[in-house]
Specification:
The chain has strands at about 5-10, 15-20, 25-30, 40-45, 55-60, 75-80. The chain is about 0% helix and about 45% strand.
Length: about 80
């Protein structure tokens, strides 16, 4: 049986699993080992044939220019060996 995954990014990473897009999901937060790039928004994920997940995110750090809301977006990569 195939598992359908949805990765949600709202600044906090979540992964939901179900049998298809129409059934109830089991949702859990995704743990990251560094808080340096939070909040982050996962933009894309690719699963290798060995099961490893590679993800790409963007992060918008605050406080880049004092006295304004300007930011300098950063792009980064994450990897998971346990499906998120």
């Amino acid at each position: 049986m195939a598992i359908f995954y949805i990765l949600n990014s709202t600044g906090t990473q979540l992964v939901s699993r179900g049998s298809d897009q129409f059934t109830p999901y089991w949702t859990q937060p995704v743990w990251v080992d560094s808080q340096d790039h939070l909040p982050m928004w996962i933009e894309s994920v690719w699963q290798d044939s060995d099961g490893t997940w590679f993800g790409w995110y963007h992060h918008e750090p605050a406080g880049v220019c004092s006295g304004s809301n300007l930011t300098a977006p950063e792009i980064g990569a994450v990897v998971s060996y346990d499906g998120g």
